[in-house]
């Protein structure tokens, strides 16, 4: 094993101390907010600029598993060479995109929301999945911080930061997030806490509330959540009642947090008088 | 530190962050596989702990500032990865070094996840354990490719470390 020189040890200690100072400053009062904004804006522009090259590669890789589930496509793929297989996978991605667009339009019509379609151009720049995604629309398209994001079927998250041409969306399943929800069967309200890939944990405000497997949860009620009300969050998968009578349910999310691609940002809600509020 | 090395470091950092956000993170989610971190480990394995921790701190800080969590978390963990990889470098076997890079990166990512869970709440502490082995696999596979490229680049005349002879002597002395 290589030994560290005295200078290297000193440098490591200084850098570690600086990093701890940054953490303290950022936690304390958002002293680095402008630095966050600047770097997010610069990276957002780069994501959008390089999505023409990087996006097809990502969608091709993501499309490979689903392409294998289509029997007709499999038969066609067997007779083709590698280049043609790549093109077919790209077509499959386009078909999914068309289906997602149709779902978005359907959701917009039935829920009286005016949706701005947006495509995910990047995930977190750090390590793995950071529970945020960057989309290719920004303030120039009418996006503002706090607006709700859906995939047409369920809740995806809300806008955390918006630049001129890109926006960062905090996913609802983020382990630090909570969503005000209503049980559509009983009308009971409660909080669905993000649990990452496990979905949500639902705790009704009334400890005596009856929660059953299969109950659907939607954002709400009006005025009590930072999200637009009435968007499906997920379905109750299991219910646990603790010794003190507290009910806690695990919830399967309607919109898979790790598979978002085409989303809609709720830029206005028709007829209900709901305003889009800023959050976090 | 020559101008060519600084330019190469900046280019490598931006490229790794873009590919991470555009391809690696969506494809490997929810595993915390990280191309920028593997790049840090690869540079440390070739050029030693000094270059590794400097690059780790810089890349981690940019990734922090581009993320919703507090700045400094990834910078702190990634400088540690650069330091450890620089110290455990074998340099004779690409596969052994890639495995070392994958293992150290996965542990570094797990520590970052734990730190995020403690200071920010934006991660689950259990994820640090659950995703450890898949992350070792993913980071090692990435390291096999990245390390080969980094080795080749950092051995060219324009990008070679200015004081490589000194670090080689320390390595030899340490093996005794």
Characterization of the model:
Chain A has helices at 6-29, 33-67, 71-78, 82-111; strands spanning 113-122, 132-135, 148-150, 155-162, 167-171, 178-183, 189-194, 200-204, 216-219, 232-241, 247-253, 262-269. With 280 residues, chain A is an alpha+beta fold. In chain A, the strands form 2 sheets. Chain A has a 6-stranded antiparallel beta barrel. A 6-stranded antiparallel beta barrel of chain A has the order 6-7-8-11-10-9. In chain A, strand 3 (148-150) and strand 4 (155-162) form a beta hairpin. The longest helix of chain A has 35 residues, at 33-67. The radius of gyration of chain A is 22 Å and the shape is globular. The N and C termini of chain A lie far apart (47 Å). By secondary structure, chain B is mostly helical. Chain B has a single domain, classed as Arp2/3 complex 21 kDa subunit ARPC3. Chain B has helices at residues 3-28, 35-47, 49-65, 73-88, 94-119, 125-130, 132-154, 164-175. Residues 165-176 of chain B have low confidence and may be disordered. The chains are: A alpha+beta (280), B mainly alpha (176). The interface between A and B is large, with 61 and 68 residues.
Notable characteristics:
heterodimer; A: 280 residues; alpha+beta; 6-stranded antiparallel barrel; disordered C terminus; B: mainly alpha; 8 helices; globular
Summary, kept brief:
The complex is a heterodimer of chains A (280) and B (176). By secondary structure, chain A is of the alpha+beta class.
Measured on Cα atoms, how large is the radius of gyration of chain A? 22 Å
Poorly predicted regions of chain A: 272-280
Q: Largest interface, with Cβ-Cβ < 8 Å?
A: A-B, 61 and 68 residues
Would you give the CATH topology of chain B? Answer: Arp2/3 complex 21 kDa subunit ARPC3
Structural class of chain B: mainly alpha
* CATH class assignment of chain B: Mainly Alpha
Total domains of chain B:
1
Main beta-sheet annotation of chain B: none
Compute the number of helices of chain A. 4
* Helix/strand order of chain A, N-terminal first: HHHHEEEEEEEEEEEE
Strand content of chain A: 25-35%
């Amino acid at each position: 094993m290589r030994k560290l020189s005295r200078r290297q040890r000193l440098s490591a200690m200084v850098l570690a101390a600086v990093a701890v100072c940054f953490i303290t400053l950022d936690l304390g009062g958002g002293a680095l907010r402008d630095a966050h904004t600047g770097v997010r804006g610069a990276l957002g522009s780069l994501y959008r600029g390089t999505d023409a090259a990087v996006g097809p590669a990502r969608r091709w890789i993501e499309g490979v598993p689903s392409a294998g589930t289509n029997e007709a496509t499999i038969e066609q793929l067997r007779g083709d060479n590698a280049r043609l297989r790549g093109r077919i996978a790209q077509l499959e991605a386009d078909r999914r995109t068309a289906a997602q667009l149709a779902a978005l339009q359907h959701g917009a019509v039935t829920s009286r929301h005016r949706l701005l379609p947006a495509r995910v151009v990047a995930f977190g720049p750090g390590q793995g999945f950071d529970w945020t995604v960057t989309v290719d629309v920004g303030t120039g398209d009418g996006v503002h911080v706090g607006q709700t994001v859906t995939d047409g079927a369920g809740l995806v998250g809300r806008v955390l930061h918006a630049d001129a041409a890109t926006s960062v969306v905090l996913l609802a399943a983020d382990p630090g997030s909570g969503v005000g929800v209503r049980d559509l069967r009983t009308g009971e309200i409660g909080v669905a806490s993000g649990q990452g890939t496990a979905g949500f944990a639902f705790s009704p405000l009334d400890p005596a509330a009856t929660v059953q497997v299969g109950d659907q949860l939607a954002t709400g009620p009006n005025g009590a959540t930072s999200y637009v009300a009435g968007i499906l969050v997920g379905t109750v998968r299991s219910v646990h009642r603790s010794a003190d009578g507290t009910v806690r349910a695990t919830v399967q999310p309607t919109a898979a947090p790790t598979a978002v691609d085409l989303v809609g940002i709720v830029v206005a809600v028709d007829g209900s008088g709901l305003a889009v509020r800023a959050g976090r | 530190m020559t101008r060519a090395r600084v330019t190469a470091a900046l280019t490598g950092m931006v490229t790794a962050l873009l590919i991470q956000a555009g391809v690696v993170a969506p494809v490997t989610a929810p595993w915390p596989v990280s191309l920028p971190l593997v790049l840090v480990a690869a540079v440390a394995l070739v050029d030693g702990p000094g270059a590794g921790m400097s690059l780790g701190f810089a890349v981690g800080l940019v990734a922090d500032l581009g993320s919703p969590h507090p700045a400094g978390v990834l910078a702190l963990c990634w400088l540690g990865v650069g330091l450890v990889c620089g110290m455990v470098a074998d340099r004779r076997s690409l596969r052994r070094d890639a495995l070392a890079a994958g293992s150290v990166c996965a542990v570094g990512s797990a520590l970052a996840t734990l730190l995020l869970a403690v200071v920010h709440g934006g991660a689950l502490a259990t994820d640090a354990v659950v995703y450890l082995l898949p992350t070792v696999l993913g980071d090692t596979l990435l390291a096999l490719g990245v390390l080969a490229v980094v080795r080749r680049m950092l051995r060219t005349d324009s990008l070679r470390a200015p004081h490589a002879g000194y670090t080689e002597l320390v390595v030899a002395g340490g093996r005794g």
